[in-house]
Amino acid sequence: MLKKLQGLLSDRRVVGGALLLIQTSIMIWFVNFLSWRWMWVYRICIILSTIMVIWLIRKYDNPAYKIPWIILILLFPIFGGLFYLLWGNTPFNRARARHRQTLQHPDFSGAPVPPASEALSAALPRHTRGARYIENESAMPVWSDTVTNYYSVGEKQFAAMCEALEQAERFIFMEYFIIEEGKMWNTLLDILVRKARAGVEVRVLYDDAGCLATLPHGYEEYLWGLGIRALRFNQFIPTLNTYLNNRDHRKICVVDGNVGFMGGINLADEYINVKVRFGHWKDTGVRLAGAGVANMTEMFLQMWEYATKEHVCDRARYMPTEVRCGDGYVQPFYDSPLDDRNVGETAYMHIINRAQRYVYITTPYLILDNEMITALTVAAQSGVDVRIVTPGIPDKKLVYQVTRSYYLQLQRAGVKIYEYRPGFLHAKMIVSDDDVAIVGTMNMDFRSFFLHFECGTLLYGGETITEIRDDILETIGISREIDSDWFRGVPWVTSICASVLRLFAPML
Fold first, then answer.
1. Cβ(301)–Cβ(456) below 8 Å
2. If you average pLDDT over residues 273-291, what whole number do you get?
3. Distance between CA atoms of residues 349 and 365, nearest Å
4. Could you give the residue numbers annotated as active site?
5. What region, left, alpha or beta, does residue 145 occupy, with left being phi > 0 and alpha being psi -120 to 50 degrees?
6. Could you check whether 142-327 and 343-507 share the same CATH topology?
7. pLDDT at 234
8. pLDDT in tens, 115-137
């Protein structure tokens, strides 16, 4: 019993959650106390809540975000308006204002070849608008002269990463949401330490919230002691602060500017199926070699600058030095929650809206706003073969119920839904018409599309897209299709609870 108590007290998640709950309770009690003691305070709170509701109605924010806030304010008018004023998307949210991020236009003049936006327009004109949007909104151009490799499971990418890291001569950049000590990370760390001692510049950036349960406090200091420049992104401080929601969910590895990895694979043993948590862990990633790695490098350096407030000089020395002959085009890009540009969701919608034959999607979480539901249903009703694969075994049961609440609406519109029987599907991909795909870190949920720092690699043309399509079809082959029999087996109480949770899905 004593050991369990000590374990709870040493768990940063438990302690932080308790402190946040205490702070919230004190504030609610204080506001209620003042409002009942002095009627004028009560009236001001009511007026403030009314103003905040009107403010929300007039704002151009996504309605899916506005509705939960409006409901909470109307249910708790005494303190609801004050909460939104301080922590909602308002000019008075000091944390949000302090962390605003402006679009940076990188200088790629040091790259071995120029961007290939014009070449893409000539080769695949129907994707010109989507590529131009990404370039305009994230300043990440299209590249040719890049070889791509697709990895259908984490084990394959892990082996390729080890090989690439062993060959590093100049620098290694790694940015991950989760790092956990075990076979995968310890193997990579051994390589990083050896390379750092050999004079290779090694930088590691990891999200503090994502690593609350996986790394000890102050782990970055330990890495610094090993010769690795390490940084915790958005350090978890248990205070009422909406910026805690803005987590670095990206997974990027860059070696010498010539090789880069991206996908859903974090640096923990379940991602390579060494540790079994929820059955077989299905995850995917891509390897780029050549000019297109320039985008990945720039994305990492921008995040490093943003987190440290230090300018990285002489960017040209981090540009690719090799040109590879690839059979398609690539466009690695990022999405930031601090710039009011929903690049990730829009990139998905560009693909869905322009699909002519099929759209296949894999995602661990399916929590959609009205715009995405409309895009998927219109595509399916237009004769496009729309298929979505989700996990068969959940990692978060509450979120899983919300995911399932979308099945009926999509299925009635003609969208085919599948659940991966062997276990947990963590892959985040979309592929369409054999000529465009995204492999990245974005889940199809509110957190990824609106709250987290995310990234993805757009692929235009090339054999890799065919490999992605075939892998998804193979995954579908061992998955269960959600049909009428499945819906009849859902208890009505579960369905109602899921519908209520769905209302507050943007806050999950």
1. no
2. 96
3. 17
4. 249, 251, 256, 426, 428, 433
5. left
6. yes
7. 80
8. 999 999 999 999 999 999 999 99
Cβ partners under 8 Å of residue 56, min gap 6: 66, 69, 70, 73, 84, 88
pLDDT band at 90 (very low <50, low <70, confident <90, very high): low
Distance CA 482, CA 10 (A): 42
CATH fold label, 142-327: Endonuclease; Chain A (3.30.870)
CB 248 within 8 A of CB 205: yes
* The token pair that represents 107 in the structure block: 């200088």
CATH of 343-507, one of 3.30.870.10, 3.40.50.2300, 3.10.180.10, 3.40.50.10260: 3.30.870.10
Strand ranges in 358-414 using DSSP code E only, listed in sequence order: 358-362, 385-391
Say how far apart CA 301 and CA 288 lie, in whole Å.
18
- Retrieve residue 241's tokens: 């602060």
Which 3 state secondary structure label does DSSP give 330? strand
- How many other CB atoms sit within 10 Å of the CB of residue 184? 25
Helix, strand, coil percentages, rounded to 5, for the chain: 50, 20, 35
What backbone torsions phi and psi does residue 363 show, to the nearest 5 degrees?
Answer: -160, 140
* Whole-number pLDDT of residue 152: 97
115-118-124 Cα angle (round to 5): 115
Look at residue 43 and tell me whether its pLDDT is greater than 60: yes
Contact 441, 264 (CB under 8 A): yes
Write the pLDDT tens digit of every residue in 289-328. 999 999 999 999 999 999 888 888 888 899 999 889 888 9
Residue 249 backbone dihedrals phi, psi, to 5 degrees: -90, 5
Q: Which of 41-45, 147-151, 366-370 has the highest mean pLDDT?
A: 147-151
Three-state secondary structure call for residue 327: coil
Q: What is the rounded distance in angstroms from the CA atom of residue 437 to the CA atom of residue 471?
A: 13
**What are the residue boundaries of the structural domains of the chain, listed by start?**
2-92, 142-327, 343-507
Can you tell me the mean pLDDT for 474-502? 85
Q: What distance in Å separates the CA atoms of residue 319 and residue 457, rounded to the nearest whole number?
A: 18
What percent of the chain clears pLDDT 90, i.e. is strictly above it? 61
Region 14-21: what's the mean pLDDT?
69
CA angle 32, 35, 40 (to 5 degrees): 165
**Amino acid found at 132:** R
